[in-house]
Write a structure and sequence with these properties.
By secondary structure, the chain is mostly helical. It has twelve helices and five strands. The chain has a three-stranded antiparallel β-sheet with strand order 3-4-5, with no helix packed on it. The protein has a two-stranded antiparallel sheet with strand order 1-2.
Length: 443
């Protein structure tokens, strides 16, 4: 029962098994399901997903939440804990395990079922996990769960239990993922607004001229370091572009780096949405699901036309209502995000780089903001940001900018120290004073 005393739990050698899964159903009414080890849907998650689908959330949100809930459910299944009887101690141990333990290593699908001796050893020519990539300077994926992953997981689980508390689901009495101790004095009537003493609203007397203090909401939520966007240098982008294998891939990169669309947004257009005459391409925005036309450079439309001519000759479906992007081999299928991500990773591998598709969006943003004739408010609209202040992160110096500026400073100081010192000329007599003394011509 919640609140009961449980013996101490040592999770040093705990391994999270690969049981259960998040299933993509293809059903728009229930796009994703969390399945237990027996292949049956987990009912508390199914009800929660249904509520999310009724709200302003996309199916991708369900998948994102489902991966965090699957990790938590695997933990509960192994320890034999019912989801509605989990305590804050269980949540504490789970978040501690995510902080200190190594991530489970998934066996590649090509090697599943094979004898361990038949599996080739991991490559040794890659940077060590967690170290900066020598080409991009970005840290490689580490062996531990990143703070962003742990923070997202804590938020998902806390909101999941809050929703079930509000709906009186199961035997749940408390949220095992509570608020931070410093916020205990604030009560939440009906699980909604936060209140202070004597029923006052939290921050009721806050000075509007002072920014709100950034407080951690969850007790076990980690501090997430601020991430600075990175751009792909022109010379490296040219090398990545040269490593692409098809006109389709070249067209995709040209669009991403010219209009700043998100990776999955650029996969949404139909063939009628690519308007060569207007030099725009229509996409479905990720959050609002609204249709928006985005400008792109002429190179992108040139590569697109070359791709379409080749694809139509091979038998790719043609029509205004047909998807714009297709797979390169039969059977023809609309192109999906995972396939595009693997394509870009292969081009990255040729350089030993670890850029992501989202770095192309950052690169496009930097290019637009570097143009003095491009008002930032237009950049905001093209990127689909709600607030202009979102662009502030692009005005902050990157690691490379700081290093270059620091080295330039030291070079100037070194040049100043090594510069020859000018000799001081001997003081000369004032000609007017000499004329007065010796009777010379007056000025």
């Amino acid at each position: 029962m919640p609140g009961e005393e449980r013996p101490g739990r040592d999770l040093r050698n705990f391994v999270l098994p690969e049981i259960g899964k998040v299933l993509k159903t293809g059903d728009p009414w229930e796009p994703y399901q969390l399945l237990d080890p027996s292949g049956r849907p987990v009912e508390p998650v199914a009800v929660y997903f249904k509520d999310l689908m009724a709200g302003p959330y996309s199916p991708l949100t369900l998948r994102s939440y489902g991966m965090d809930l699957l990790r938590w459910w695997r933990y509960l299944w192994v320890l034999g804990i019912e989801w509605d009887r989990a305590t804050s101690e269980d949540a504490r141990d789970f978040m501690l395990w995510m902080k200190l333990a190594d991530k489970p290593v998934r066996v590649h699908w090509r090697h599943r079922g094979k004898d361990p001796s038949e599996i080739p050893p991991p490559r040794t020519d890659r940077p060590a996990p967690g170290t900066p990539n020598p080409v991009t300077g970005k840290p490689t994926v580490g062996t531990k769960y990143a703070p962003t992953v742990r923070a997202h997981c804590e938020t998902v689980l806390r909101t999941f239990y809050d929703w079930h508390l509000n709906n009186n689901s199961g035997a749940l009495l408390v949220n095992p993922f509570p608020l931070d101790r410093s916020r205990r004095g604030q009560r939440r009537p009906e699980g909604r607004n936060e209140w202070g003493r004597q029923g006052e609203r939290a921050n009721a007397h806050h000075n509007p001229e002072v920014e709100f203090k950034k407080e951690r909401k969850g007790r076990y939520r980690p501090t997430v370091p601020e991430q600075i966007p990175r751009r792909i240098p022109d010379d490296k982008y040219t090398e990545v572009f040269a490593g692409l294998r098809s006109h389709r891939d070249r067209a995709l990169l040209a669009f991403w780096v010219s209009n700043g669309a998100r990776a999955e947004e650029l996969l949404s257009p139909k063939q009628k949405d690519a308007k060569v005459g207007q030099q725009t391409i229509g996409v479905i925005r990720k959050g609002t699901r609204e249709y928006q036309e985005l400008p792109a450079n002429t190179d992108a439309f040139v590569w697109l036309r070359l791709y379409q001519e080749d694809a139509w000759k091979k038998g790719v479906p043609r029509g205004r209502a047909q998807p714009l992007w297709w797979t390169l081999r039969r059977p023809w299928r609309p192109l999906e995000y995972d396939a595009v991500r693997m394509m870009f990773n292969r081009a990255n591998a040729l350089l030993g780089a670890n850029w992501t598709l989202h770095d192309l969006r950052h690169t496009a943003t930097f290019l637009m903001l570097d143009d003095p004739d491009m008002p930032p408010v237009y950049v905001q609209k093209i990127l689909g940001h709600k607030y202009l202040s979102t662009l502030d992160i692009y005005s902050r110096p990157t690691r490379d900018d700081v290093i270059v500026a620091g080295l330039a400073h030291h070079a100037r100081q070194e040049k100043k120290r090594n510069a020859p010192k000018p000799t001081t000329p001997a003081p000369a007599y004032n000609r007017d004073s000499l004329n007065v003394l010796f009777g010379g011509p007056s000025a």
